[in-house]
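Running low. Any example?
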Amino acid sequence: MPFNTEQLRREFPALQQEVNNKPLIYFDNAATTQKPKAVIERILQYYSRENSNIHRGAHFLSQQATDAYEDARQTVQLFINAAFTHEIIFTRGTTESINLVAYSFFKKFVKKGDEILISAMEHHSNIVPWQIACEDYGAILKIIPMDERGVLDLEAYKSLLSDKTKMVAVTHVSNALGTINPVKEITQLAHEMGAAVLIDGAQAMSHLKVNVQDIGCDFYCFSGHKLYGPMGVGVLYGREELLNQLPPYQGGGEMIKEVTFEKTTYNELPFKFEAGTPNVGDVLGLEAAIRFVSYLRLDEIALHEQRLLNYATSQLQTLENIRFFGTAPEKTSVVSFLFTDIHPYDTGTILDKMGIAVRTGHHCAQPIMDFFGIPGTIRVSLAVYNSRSEIDQLIIALKKVREMFV
């Protein structure tokens, strides 16, 4: 049964406003989703009634906050079906999670001449950390190619794998193209060659049910703010066996067990990787977001968004001089396109005047734009609170844009 989007929208305060005297239509969900009342109220409750530093306090508030924080860790564990709660590490987001793995994994396992594989459709956050690490250690970064549809070439991937491959790092869902990559197959092939696998799940978590044990990956990371949760918080899942072998990423705070001037003993998992003061309020906000999408059910969310994606694509195809980017058979929630005769920034600016928020530019995926020979695209990215009527308004607005440039 379709979502009652009008009823659901009332749960999101930001969607109740007008922009340029027009009701806000928000199609920039791949950049960040809006936040439901449940998330905002949970953060407010923490800072109003539970605010305390955690793990080492003997007083009531500290114990209460510690219990809530560790309960949130278990909520994440169950949400992605990790084997243990201590495989869940709280970070500032996907970017920090990838940097953590790149730093610690290279320090432990990578030497000069070893190889790292990433795909041609990666976000900058899953490119730059590996470039830095490869430069520091003399390793080689290799790229899994994609075709014109935005589909990875798995035969080329197989040919790139070798006994020199130490890590394969790929996105689950492309933020610029919407492609859903076959991460389970990618993981299996990498493991056959003895390589570890990291999956960037930033764009997947609000659209797909993720089961890290079924995927079989060694690391999986995502951000709260793309999952209807707060900014500045995210998750790194890592397999216990590997996490125990990796050195810590940062020093200080909860990551220590004992410190002398001669030697420091590191804490057990997951605390070994959670240096400094924890972001307790936003972790609890993330837990509220997970409970929110779990209540709605991700399979129902996916069905609703797929219907919207199909409808948006079919309606956009009726417009003149339009070119699509990302036409993979398996994709979700993103339509990237251009008017071939209008600059994407001009289109985005005019849409904003009509109260419609889209993203224009390279979407922190410049190699994708270089592949297609374009400066950027117009990206319409969908979420659970979007509706067919909003897509209709978008099409009307885009026709007006065309009229302005005829």
Remarks:
- Residues 257 and 267 are 5 Å apart (CA to CA).
- The longest helix spans residues 60-80.
